[in-house]
Amino acid sequence: MGQKISFELDSIHRLSGSDYEKLSLYEQLLGSHKKNGDYTQLGLDAHQLGRWLFYKEKKWSEAIKITKIAYEAKEKAVPFNPEQLKRSYYNYANFNKSRRNYAIAIRYFRKMLEVKESIFFNGKAYALIGDCYRKLGDLYQAVENQSQAFKYFDPIKDKIFIISNHINIAIAYKNIRNQKSINTAISHLQIADSIIQTIKEPRIHDLYAINNNLGDMYFKKIGVENMHKSIAYFEKALEIAKKMKIDKNLAQINLNLGIIYSKTNSSLAKEYFNRALSYTNTKDAGYLIPKIYMGFGLSSFTEKEYLKAQIYYKKAFENYFSKEIKDVHWLPSKKELTLINDKAVFLELLKRKIQAYLANAEKENDTISYVNVIRTVKTSDELVDSMMNENLSHRSKLLWRSLASQIYIIGLEACYRLNNLEEAFYFMEKNKALLLTLEVIKKKATIPNEVLEKETEIENEIFHLQKLFQKALLTQKDSISEIILAQKNEIQQFKDSLSALYPVYFSSINSPKILPYSELEVEDDKIIIQYTMAETVARVLPDAYGMVISCNHRKLFKLKKIKSLLDKISLLREKLNTPFKTTEDINSYKKIAHQLYIELFPKTIRDEMKNKKITIVADHFLSFVPFDALITDLESGKYMIESNEINYTYSLSFQQENSSILKKADKEFLGVAPVRFSNGLSSLTKSEQEINKANVYYDGSLLVKDQALKETFIQNSNQYKILHLATHADASDSIAPWIAFRKSKLTIDELNTLKNNAELVVLSACNTSLGEIRRGEGVMSLARGFFKSGANTVIPSLWQTNDKATAIITSDFYKNLSQGKSKSEALRIAKLNYLHANVDAEASPYYWAPLILIGDTGILLPESNRLDILNASIILILLLLALYFFISKRNNKSF
């Protein structure tokens, strides 16, 4: 639909001089339209003027202002023309996108989609929203919106748009940086390639992009065959780039070829880097210069010329910040980091700089290089913090946490070498449960409850929609329903409004306080042992580290032979899946459990651990180890629980924040035992007995059999101090981990929307402390879900529980707890009682060790006990007063 501009506008346009020079004349005309109430003509003329200023004269600020006048006029115009309004929204969004105002662009592309009377350019709007999110670093939002775009493209008329969208969605998947996402990216590029073969005159830029990105994808896959494929695609892309004669493409493909050869043929790699550099004289190719210098640095690193690598990285910095830098060890300030657009690439530059420092330190035994590792890791940490302050989706924040985790691990090696405990503690804490800690801070914020509830609802709805999107991809459905998309838009708008209303709150919750090392206080009878472990980084399995913290002893130690350690953990878990059957079973278990004890607790710290209450801050696969069941002495077969009381926490910073939340529950105990299930799950005949025995010590309500409904639990759970669920669960469900109720399941998404006031949650169900490991954040378990919704302590299970043994242990636990024992001590005594009361197979850790205690370890007396204590105290006081008066009276008589 063409724009019908006014005669007056066309007349001014035909006058000599640029449109910018005639801007005052144009403004008078627009003012006249507004004065006359002619919003239709105002909208049409302003829209066209904005296009002229933007595309022809590159007066971007003025073009954006004029286009705003256009869409505001079209919003008021009568008759209302939806397509004309969407055109102006589109231009306003696109102009802002080109100026890197991505948040504004997203908002107005969405406003296009809200105009339901027309579907004009909806596909392109979704595609461009996705592209904006990709550039903001929110890759999951990028993928979701770009996938939705396919719904609106005509498979015949819109082939060019479809190809472009497949290429862009592939780039987003590539940047998610795991093998699954790489494979998905390759699939999208292959689809684009098959479509482009059906076009008589395909766009040469698309041909280049497909081959260049396929080369990049196969380079990121493991294997020699994939490396050959990568080179073949890059070389094909190079031939296409030569025909295009576009400098930025020639620079990019030579850069890519340089990187692929940088680890095998440094001299050839440098040739490609130099060719790439020769094509960066034009303005549109200049953004590649820092990446090219990163490539030179990588080649120097391969040649073990680490100082030379740092010089190249300095040159990359100079081009990023457009200034001369004299000091090779210079690092950007916090303010300068906020100016970086492609933060993922810049983080990669910092990571390479860190690796060069570390390699030089190891080669030269150079203390200064170790110091520079720590400095650069802290700068990387600041960059990640700035990224976390962006309005990213939950999954994209997890991705950034994963990228940061790789860097913290490298930093720990430098801390270990320098015995720098303070920085090591910071890196360890920053590597765990940060997003969970954010949820705790939200609960403490002084904001109206209805706002917090809505904000929590929003976050969880986003997470739920992302899960639906994953499911849609698995079933090869490219679109999400209009209802879900409408909800998604509403969610984002509300988040934007919350940020505007409560700026202090929304700036603070993204930067949780890490417990300072100097403020660590540990009681005489306690000890903290913190671990940090990572997955494979750059195809190498890094070392893992531990720190012991006690009243008078602090030490950083290193766990070596990590592959062997992981194999032992896997073998231990395998042996814990069933009870012992033979003497050989017992002996083989004790052997592996003792080996793990020796490796996880170096000899230098074992004396410090004796008879102490131990808090384990686990990480990665260590989160699946039942430390209670490790063997401290192979000859006697003594379990660790017999020497130590053990509890767990996600991080000390999280523990501090979580413990500071005031619980407001007014009822004591809510027990849930469906016993039998309507969805085919096996019956749990001892589960009713389990919650009945607990109810003996703690007064409250029981949801048994037909009363054990999910809806009832959701409605009432926030009223109770203790929640005990004796049921089935599955934390490993890839789509939605769940807890079973009588007729339905409570999914992790629903759990995240709950708010509880529980001092204690007992999850007497299978595998409730297991789940997907997210590097840098922890295990995404059902136990974590209860902490997110407000719990102070959670007792989950590490494997499939036996309902009979669990009933005995939990009953004894509540008895001990009601008598004034701490939560941790009460559970330990109950386990020991079970262990010592049984022999042979019945004494297997399979029965007594799956339940662990995470979080606060304090005392939790029943109300009845408190009243008894109070009454006893009053009686004692009265007796003492009576005795006092009796003695006083007798003494008076004697005078």
From TrEMBL:
Key word Oxidoreductase present in the record? no
What stretches pass through the bilayer?
869-887
The organism's lineage is: Bacteria, Pseudomonadati, Bacteroidota, Flavobacteriia, Flavobacteriales
Q: Which InterPro entries match?
A: CHAT_dom, TPR-like_helical_dom_sf, TPR_rpt
Q: Which PANTHER family match?
A: RAPSYN-RELATED
UniProt key word Membrane: yes
Alphabetical keyword list: Membrane, Transmembrane, Transmembrane helix
Q: Which domain of life is it from?
A: Bacteria
User: What is the recorded name of this protein?
Assistant: CHAT domain-containing protein
Q: List, for all copies, the residue spans of the domain called CHAT.
A: 591-856
